[in-house]
Amino acid sequence: MPPARSTRQRKPPPDGFDDLEDTLLSFSNKMKDAENAAHEGKRRNETLWPFFQISHQRSRYIYELYYLKEAISQTLYDWLLKNGYADGDLIAKWKRQGYEKTAETNFSATCVCRVPKAQLKEERTIECVNCGCRGCASGD
Questions:
Q1: Number of Cα atoms under 13 Å in the Cβ half of residue 120
Q2: What's 42's DSSP letter?
Q3: Is 138 in contact with 99 (CB distance < 8 Å)?
Q4: Diameter of the chain by CA atoms?
Q5: pTM of the entire structure?
Q6: Distance between CA 16 and CA 85 in Å, rounded?
Q7: What is the pLDDT of residues 111-139, one digit of tens each?
Q8: How far apart are CA 63 and CA 98, in angstroms?
């Protein structure tokens, strides 16, 4: 059994975290607001959609800072992933060709997120059961 970790043993954040802290705090506040929002009248999976969307936005923010803008260091990026500020699996999916915009978090099945909008039926409103998006395939 691994030893219990306390907050005193946690390493301080690397340089550059202070620049991101306000934005990450706003994502944290949005997540708390989503937790406290009323869930009456919604389907069970609909209550989880705001959490997935906020988590997706936070991960996308960190992904863009590191891979597209190159504004943060490797050590800060690794620290953010290790401490749960971003979803490493989702970011790994975004790095693959054809998955640049996907919100898909269920990688075991093809989600509506991966179906191009041109192939979706126009007369029907289709929402992803997992995340609530209406198709965000990169080929659109």
A1: 21
A2: S
A3: yes
A4: 57
A5: 0.79
A6: 14
A7: 655 566 667 667 666 677 777 776 655 45
A8: 16
Alpha helices in 37-114 (DSSP H): 49-63, 74-82, 88-94
Q: Are 108 and 130 in contact (CB under 8 A)?
A: no
At 12, list the tokens. 């301080």
Tell me: the pLDDT tens digits for 9-19?
Answer: 678 899 999 99
Q: Are 78 and 91 in contact (CB under 8 A)?
A: no
pLDDT digits (tens, 9 = 90+) for 28-85: 999 999 999 988 888 888 888 888 889 989 999 999 999 999 999 999 999 999 999 9
**How far apart, in whole angstroms, are the C-alpha atoms of residue 48 and residue 43?**
9
Q: Rounded to whole angstroms, how far apart are CA atoms 112 and 109?
A: 10
Tell whether the model's pLDDT for residue 6 goes beyond 70: no
d(C-alpha 104, C-alpha 87), whole Å: 12
- Helix or strand holding residue 34 (H, E): helix 17-36
Query: Could you give the CA distance from residue 71 to residue 16 in angstroms, rounded to a whole number?
Result: 9
